[in-house]
Every structure is written in structure tokens, then in C-alpha cells.
Amino acid sequence: MDNDLNFETYLFISENKLIIYVNSERNIQLYKKELMIPKNSSESILNKVDYFLNENIFKIERVLKGFVKKMILILDSEDFFSVDISIKKKNYENILSFKSLNHLLYELKDYCKDSTQGAKIIHMVIQNYLINEKNYTSFPENTKCNSLALDVKFICISNDLIKNVEVILKKYQISLKKVVNANYINNFLDEDEDNIFLMSKKIIVGHNANEVLLVDKIPKNRGFFEKFFSFFS
Q1: Are 121 and 112 within 8 A, CB to CB?
Q2: What's 140's domain CATH number?
Q3: Mean pLDDT, all residues of the chain
Q4: Best label site of 12, 83, 185, 229, fewest CB within 10 Å?
Q5: Claim to verify: residue 128 and residue 163 sit in the same structural domain
Q6: How far is CA 7 from CA 68, 96, 176, 200, in A?
Q7: Co-location of 119 and 171 in the same domain
Q8: pLDDT category, 215, cuts 50, 70, 90?
Q9: Do 73 and 11 sit in the same domain of this protein?
Q10: What is the tally of structural domains in the chain?
């Protein structure tokens, strides 16, 4: 199983435990290992992550009969912070479209990046649409529009923390594919899906239609404007 598309590898990091989890493209668990961290531990969490990966990566690769090349990080940390930004502009196209919405989202994202120097945007979620002074919780495409206002929440974290994790992963020839906020993912768990790893997978591909997906590039086989939105990170 040497094709990276056949499985996903996740690393869960919190102050009290580490979990590494691998599932197949059909959501079959291939590997899972957990390490509990004592409350009074003096060793840094990054050192524990390094040790944990060293103990498990080669075991995983034996199971997969292939290499782990990318990893998704699920981070449970108090270092996350939220930034709420609103914007209002006239829509001169008369009919509301994804294209007009796209311009506002780019503007908001750039403003957030400029105002949170040294931070990485992890999630960008549209909280509310105000169109012609009427509130909408989802995007009403093709609505006649004279004015449009957006309320957007950005969930961010220090870039230094992410870079430190990336340095550790590089020791094992692994790149960081995606970072998600554990508390944000927990909001979507329910009786039908209580697995944080599988829900993370759903969130990453657009489970929340109001989340703007921040990706490195836009797949060629997918239109730019869909029911959810994709932007360069």
C-alpha cells in the first residue's frame, strides 16, 4: 500500500495525550496508538511527539508496506485564538454570485493575515450573511442583491508552533498536509459520527458548507466555485 491516496495518517496532540491514527480510503482503521502524558511531566510536548513518532512511524510503514509521506495534525491547544471580522459592500452585479462573494472573502482573509502577524489561519468560517438587511445562515446564490455584509470567524494559531511540528516530521521524511482545531472538530461530532479522525476527514473536504477551505492548490478536476469555497492558504 504505497499510494498515499489509499490511507490517511493523523497525529492528535493535546497536553495530556498523543494519538497516531491511520485509516484507509474506505475508513477502515489500519493502525492506532495512544500515549498518555502525566500531568506533572517536565519533558516538553515536542520532545514527546518526537519520541512518539519514532516509536510508531516504522511500525505503521510495516503495516502499510509503504511510506508515510504526509500527516494531518489535529491540535487540541489553548494557543488557538479567534478573530471575528465583518465586511459590508455594495454588490453592483445585482444577482449574488460566488464570484462576488469570493472577492470579499479574499479581502477578509488578507486583512486577517495582516492584523495577526506570525499567526496561521487554520479555519475560516462564515457565521452570517446579511443581504439587503436580511440575515442568512447559508449562501443564497442567485439572490437579487443591493448590499452584502459578511461576518467571518478566523481560528488561528502561532506559526512558530506549526513550524516546530514540521521540523519534527521532516526527521521522518513526512510533510504536514493539514492542521485542524480539535475543539472545532468536536462541534460536529454526534451519535452518528463520534470519531474525531473521521470527522476531521469530512471537515477537510467540506462537511461544513460555510467553511472556506484553505488549500495549497485547486484540483484541476473541480470547479472553483462550488457549494463550499477553496482558497490558496
Answers
A1: yes
A2: 3.30.1490.110
A3: 88
A4: 83
A5: no
A6: 9, 39, 15, 14
A7: no
A8: low
A9: yes
A10: 2
pLDDT in tens, 154-198: 999 999 999 999 999 999 999 999 999 999 999 999 988 999 999
* Strands (DSSP E) found in the chain: 7-13, 17-24, 29-36, 70-75, 81-90, 119-131, 134-136, 147-158, 175-181, 211-215, 229-232
Please give the grid coordinates belonging to residue 100. Answer: 462576488
Q: Tell me: pLDDT of 110 over 80.
A: yes
C-alpha cell at 44: 516538553
SS3 call for 45: helix
Q: What is the pLDDT of residues 14-58, one digit of tens each?
A: 999 999 999 999 999 999 999 999 988 778 999 999 999 999 999
With respect to residue 215, please indicate whether it lies within any of the assigned structural domains. no
Same domain, 89 and 102: yes
Residue type, 140: P
Integer Cα distance of 207 and 109 in angstroms: 20
